[in-house]
Fold:
Amino acid sequence: MKRLVFLIISIFFGVQAFAQTTISGEVHNEKKQPVYNASVMLLRVTDSLPMAYTFTDEKGHYQLVTQSEEAKLLIAVYGFNLKRQFKEVENKTQTVDFTVQEEALQLKEVSVKSEKIWGGNDTVNYVVDAFRDTTDLVIADVLKKMPGIEVKDDGKVEYKGKPISKFYIENMDMLQGRYNLATTSIAASDVASVQVMENHQEVRALQNIQFSDNVALNIKLKENAKGTFALMADLGVGWADSLQYEGSLTGMYFAKRNQFLGTLKANNAGINLVDNENVTVYPMASMVEPSAPGISGVRHTLNRSQGITLNSLHKLKNDADLSFNLLVGSDRNRKSSKSHTLYLLPDDTLNLVERMQSLETARMLEGSINYNLNKDLDYLTISLTASGHRNWGEGLVDNGELIRQEENYQSLCAKANIHWIRKSRRDPESGIEFNSTTSYGTLPYVLQVAPGCFPEVLNDGEDYPMTLQNIVFQSFKSENFLRFLTSVVWKRLRIMPYFNFSMEEQALNSSLIGQNAEGLTLQFAENQFDNEIRWHKYQPAAGAYFTYDRRRVNVTLMVPVQLRYLQLDDRIVNGSDPQIKVLSQPSLSFRYDFSHNWKVSTKIATYNNTPSLRTLYSGYILQNYRTLSHYDCPLADTYGANGSLTFSYKNVMKYAFGDFSVNYNRYRNEVMYAQSFEGNTMVINAVEQPSWGDYLSVSLYAGKGFSWKKLNINAKCSYGLGRSPHLVQNQVAIYYNQGWNANLTASIAITDYIFFNNKGSFSQMTSSLEGFNDDSQPIVSLIDNANLSVVLPFGLSVTPSVEFYHTRSEECTDNFVLLDCSLGYTFRKVKFSLDVNNILNTDSFIYSYYSGIYGYYSAYLIRPRSVMLRVRLKVI
Amino acid sequence: MNKKLYYVLLLTLAIPRLAFSQNPVNIDEYMVIDQSRFIITYEAMMTDDSLKPTEHNYDRLVLMVGDSISRCYSNTMYRYDSAFTISERKGHDGYKNMSHFVGDSGGVWVPDVYKYYGSKRMTVMHRIDEARVPIYLYDEPLDLMDWKMSFGTKEILGYQCFKAECDFRGRHWTAWFTMQIPVKDGPWKFGGLPGLILEMEESRGHYAFRCIGIENQQKPMIWYDGPRFEDYQRCTRADVMKQEEDYHADFIGYIRMANPGIKIHIAKMDASGKYAGSEEAPEGYKKALPYNPVELE
Structure:
């Protein structure tokens, strides 16, 4: 009976049963052991598309069913650690067994495109390799391409248009502000990521107590770059109008507990190895000399410079950092220009045309020691810096008459800082903070001008051969701050009382003498042109900080009360009585993060300035051959207030950064400085005449990176409008300055081998004198700098670049182009480059601007066409 | 730990972004359960609110494949746990410091799935978005999907892929898998195809997983067994879904329930939309979050 039923069913469904194929079998390995969990897939022979699949059971058995009507079928057997096998079989129910071989599975890797940027509320991390390309040598080259970050020509870094305040390498601050040494030395390929920390409070004990809007940058190195000493050598030799050379040796070591960076450099190719970073006293007089244009120093600095820097940091047992920095440098700089200065006067415009040449030599030595302990409850920084500068200069000015100038000065500065915080162990909200900074500077200065200046003022109208101005200026400053962290906390409101004591002492001794034809000293009018003045300012203050801090809101109000004691002790004219005033200059800052991406902050501060000795001397100082100044004025104040409102945007996922800010500043002066002209010479007198001025500026910053072709765009735009009163020829004149400025930088990787960078800036400035020359023409300047890097096979690359300058002012329009080209070749790890700069051999750089009541136009001599062959290699 | 907590919820703003306070684990406390052979990285796309189908969030999923175990976890969650651990290592209260943590991409793929090939089951570690509730664990069988082969091929990251489809818990999914990587695995709970799934797409475009990286990497695969392990709560998938539903239906009520004694403050806005102080939420104050779970059933 059962058979019958089966038979009937088979007849009934016979056609379908015929089209269904069952393939079964066993999969075993070469040792005849069954293979468990192998994939068995049935594929169409024509296009290898899967029709059915199964997995083998513990006994290695499988069974596949298909209704395909194709003549042939393809069976694939594969699995974890099995060599894939295919068998083509007839489309009929059958048994197909497989013997498979074992094979370790190795996948074809696909590296995850790392997120170029990631980060949280206050940090942004940039993955360096995502921005780096083969033409980038040092980390500064890559920083330039990161959205939100800009690198200045000197290697200094800005984030969203704001200079960074701290630079760390592996979270350690070895370079103490001279971090451009690192950005221009550390190889781009050694850096894993760059971290930007916004609202960075470097003092851990003050985190959550004092809000900070500083930005810090941290360099994280790749593992293989840590703990090994690297010595890099850069050598270059070439020809401009004479032999050009450039050489540097850089040694670097970055480990967990020790860091070292040392450089030895020499060049005559435009890099100045002397800087004034820690100088606190500046000369009160100077030679009239060509003023360098705001383009890359390499273009215009015709110099010879040598320098050594040694920087090291050691972590002590208590995790404090101890760092040493030493800097020795010298520079000899030749300058030449033709300039045209325009003084806008109420009744006249004064023209001054000068051809100038100068040669200056500077030497410096600076050393510093820093101890820094930065823990949650304890903070201690002790830093000592001392620097000495020695300068000589000689200059020639031809303004129809030939004027010889010579200057000679040396400055010595020292600075000490102790900053100590101790928080209570029981209540980490409370504690005590002490911060004391003391600095001293001295500057003896001599200026010699021939022929003698201002004969009508100084020498009864009688010409004489030479004027000698001697100035010794000394300054001492001490600022001591004591604060109780949280004496009262109510909810999130914190009140912190503080006391401050600051004192400033300045001394000025100067003498103005002449020399007659016989070389003998001429005393002018019984030393009435000399100065012997002491200036004292003591300022005790007490006040309180009120802070309110929530996760997204931060308010800080500072209310001080100060007692100010000022005294000008003039030993030649009678000294003035001390002036005692009670002042209060409160300030308020507010920040609100209204979302992930948007923040708004505002700041309002009031200030009070008193002139220092620089603008208080009653004798005369020859500021330069055409400016003789003297201030005849009692102690006076400037009161002012400024406010700012900033909207800040950041969207890390979209690589977008933005800032919009409005600033307004208004001030009131009790005195005005009268500038009167006698021929080509200017005399400054201070006159008691209240006046006010203000300045409004609006700026917008936007940065955006794209995944597409690594495109990165940074744009900055600003507008400023100012009103300032001047006293000219005994009349009050209001000057209005206004200006636009727009900057755009962009970089793009057109292909994997072609990169393009462009940097453009446009500015337009006008200055007008109310009621006199209201229709003055603007000065327009457009600068564009474009370069293209093409990576060729065999380690070759070529980088042509062009700089275009356009200046338009009332009197002239200038367009000129600077062309450069660089050919690179990499052989193993040695990089060669042949650079040809200023191919068109342009001889001078032309620029002009308005500043207050001046219009200035200058043609400055720049470096002629130069050819240089450079080699960069890793010695160790 | 028993300090009273204060919350200010500025309810006019995008809440899910603010309230990123997933239950952290200390990643220093673990045991090694296998060694990975490959590490596959996926980009996960999610849509929190089905009424706003074009607003997606993203996370990165890491699938570690070992000989007998695989684990698929969220990279954001891992970074979050790392930050928590570093903070704990320094002796801080990790929970307190986590309030400032912000994910990269706005999205967090919550379930952490361990697949055990031998016992054919998976364990899902699920954390609900509020710090003081237990971490939930539930088990499920391994081969949950009923796949249908459809004729289609596509090359993904240089691998030839075949197409398969399935209906899974209320959503229709299309998978792209490759026989060149003979692993029956995929992102999240997906697996069971004769090859690794490199891409999954949900038919309404609410969810998708796309492979973005493949590495041959031997790394320890770990199971966290720190002190918080004792807080792990064994339960069923239905229990977790219930918790998530409750949380999304009224997250303020949920926070109150999970953190007894908590004070909840609500920001007030004046007529012009300005912040005008906050006041304590009245008893029974409710607030719902959009809910569009990957498993609808």
